[in-house]
């Protein structure tokens, strides 16, 4: 079991309730990363399902849960021959923190009938760069859990030179050696700095709603994250991320709605 597996494990308590312990190692300046929280919820939802993989997840972030004990309550809605549907709620101190609707199925390693090309050509990884290590007092513990090597223009905001377009692109892997799986992908779709940073915005940009789809089981090796947005307006922005595995296959795609950061 890797550190990530341990940090996201869900232990069945009774019925379809699962005890979890939210790990402070996945924080972004205090709040826990949304992708990490989805991975925790999905562990419980898949365990309660007759199928192996979370193929579609929609999560609404009602509150920002704190590190420590919590519970995931899974409510099966319907199960058929090829898919099952459930509601999963992350509860802490008696209050719902995240509501998720999850579709599970079992994916096979089939050849695609159609597959498009990446939305952007990434430079070789040796031409990409890492962000500076955050100061300990920043509370950015998430950075230590993963390796991200960025397409240089998309972190121009770091030196006051944002591109003016909502975008973020990077190579991704877990810091501790681990082949990517659906739970790692749940983290990966929310691992990039907010794309709105490249328009000049700064500060914590809380996710309100995030939907992602598992399209294939990833091959071992680096993942490529290609993020972009279409509209920044009235304090809101959207973010879309496509995730490709080391063979170039599309393995996950996501869309989220978030608030523009303040400060």
Automatic annotation (TrEMBL):
Q: Where are the transmembrane segments?
A: none
Q: What is this protein called?
A: Thioesterase family protein
Which residue range or ranges hold the Acyl-CoA thioesterase-like C-terminal domain? 126-260
Q: Which InterPro entries does its entry note?
A: ACOT8-like_C, Acyl-CoA_hotdog, HotDog_dom_sf, Sec_Metab_Biosynth-Assoc, TesB_ACOT8-like_N
What range(s) does the Acyl-CoA thioesterase-like N-terminal HotDog domain occupy? 25-105
Pfam families from the xrefs?
4HBT_3, 4HBT_3C
